[in-house]
Design the sequence.
């Protein structure tokens, strides 16, 4: 299982942590004053990226990391974006969503509903949010990125073997050889070419991307340039996405 790691400078991609978070969370308080939860800040700590289940409602703001059964309290440090997305995607309060978030970890609040939890995370960025999907069961261990779009439907996998573009028609699959990623400003770029398929240019830019069909949110926008067309959509980051930091 990938370990949580400290947040590096911009565009330093890393493995995503999960249940390893739980062992470092401290403190259990008492009380029932929900209005005091926000005042009980998690102390400053290194940022980590976590995947897991989020439940959001009037009395419950909880997160369960992938690979763990233990819930922690959630403090919203996103200026309301976390709450807005949760309420948008869930059909009713307390419905579990799969999320990927950037967060800092620490003790549970001393008072309020959060005091009953083993610890807390302050979410500072929402990177991914889905009501339907594979969730924690999705295998991202062997990929760098997975990109996808609609009109037309397509998906692109970038892994240790190369770049593979798939369409609804299985015979339309196209593959390019493995190439290394490079950073260009705020973008991650791939470029590969074969005599048969021609050149493919892939540009991924970190920033919340909303899937037009499902309404889900993903951490990258993507543009795939091919000889005869340009495809646009969203992308998610796999556990193999380790790149050098930007020179900015």
Sequence:
């Amino acid at each position: 299982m990938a370990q949580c790691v400290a947040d590096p400078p911009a565009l330093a991609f890393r493995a995503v942590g999960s249940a390893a978070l739980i062992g470092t969370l401290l403190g259990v308080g008492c009380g029932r004053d929900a209005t005091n939860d926000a005042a009980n800040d998690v102390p400053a700590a290194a940022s980590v990226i976590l995947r897991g289940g989020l439940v959001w409602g009037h009395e419950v703001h909880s997160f369960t990391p992938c690979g763990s059964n233990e819930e922690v309290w959630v403090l919203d440090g996103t200026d309301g974006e976390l709450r807005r997305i949760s309420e948008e995607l869930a059909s009713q309060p307390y419905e579990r969503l799969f999320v990927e978030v950037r967060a800092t970890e620490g003790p549970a609040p001393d008072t309020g509903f959060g005091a009953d939890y083993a610890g807390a995370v302050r979410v500072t960025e929402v990177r991914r949010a889905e009501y339907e999907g594979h969730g924690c069961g999705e295998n991202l261990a062997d990929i760098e990125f997975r990109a996808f779009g609609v009109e037309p439907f397509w998906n692109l996998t970038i892994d240790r073997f190369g770049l593979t573009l798939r369409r609804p028609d299985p015979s339309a699959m196209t593959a390019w050889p493995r190439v290394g990623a490079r950073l260009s400003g705020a973008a991650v770029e791939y470029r590969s070419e074969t005599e048969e398929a021609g050149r493919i240019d892939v540009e991924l830019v970190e920033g919340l991307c909303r899937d037009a069909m499902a309404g889900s949110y993903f951490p990258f926008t993507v543009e795939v340039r091919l000889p005869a067309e340009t495809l646009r959509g969203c992308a998610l980051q796999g556990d193999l996405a380790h790149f050098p930091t930007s020179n900015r």
Residues 9 and 230 are 31 Å apart (CA to CA).
